[in-house]
Amino acid sequence: MLWPKAVKGRLKTGTDQEIVQSYPYRSACPSTLWGELIAESAEELFFGGYTSYFLWTQVPAMSETLRRKAMRGCRVRFLLGDPRGAATRQREEIEDVALTVSTRIRTTLQQLDKLGEVEGLEARFSSVSDAANHISLSVFRFDDEALVTPHLARQAGHDSPLLHLRRRSEGGMFARFAEHAEELWSRGVPLTSA
């Protein structure tokens, strides 16, 4: 009686409360949002994109920001695909684009290498057994918010959809994706010269 059907249909009431915004393409997500989420994070930054190379083109002063965050006690982690791995080669054949998956990973590795040793900043490759799971789903975590990209069949990451999530409860969508990322991280392997 108090809430007409039209209003009830527009209100988020269940687990969909965790969906802040959805974008049909990752590239449609404003670059300012990436910068704001990184800047506002104090405890946890997790970059679980298979390549994550675009961050340095989208976020001004990305390297300096990561260094500053880590020095202030924020845990900063990168989970990347192995540029020499079979899943990477297969994805390159599927995407068939000039800026290959391995080149994009190496771009991130080069940027991380330029940072040098920074306490609180860690990077790993996903394990061989997890590569297919990692390459098909990118999870980027910023404290209690996340940007998640499920990769579509033959689309590059920027052409796949993106969900902006915010933790509202235990066991919700945010937690499910965060747990997935942690599982992949737990089996990740140390970076080797790529």
Question: Could you provide a short overview of the structure?
Answer:
The protein has 194 residues and is an alpha+beta fold. It is built from 8 helices and 8 strands. The chain has helices at 5-8, 31-40, 55-58, 62-71, 86-95, 101-115, 131-135, 173-186, and strands spanning 19-23, 44-48, 75-80, 121-125, 137-142, 145-150, 162-166, 189-190.
Outline the secondary-structure elements.
Blueprint lengths: L4 H4 L10 E5 L7 H10 L3 E5 L6 H4 L3 H10 L3 E6 L5 H10 L5 H15 L5 E5 L5 H5 L1 E6 L2 E6 L11 E5 L6 H14 L2 E2 L4
Parallel strand pairs: 2-3, 3-4
Antiparallel strand pairs: 1-7, 2-5, 4-8, 5-6, 6-7
Spatial order of the strands in the main sheet?
1-7-6-5-2-3-4-8
Overall shape: it is: globular
| Proportion of residues in helical segments | 25-40%
Beta-strand percentage range: 15-25%
The total strand number stands at 8
Largest sheet: 8 strands, mixed
Poorly predicted runs of 5 or more residues: none
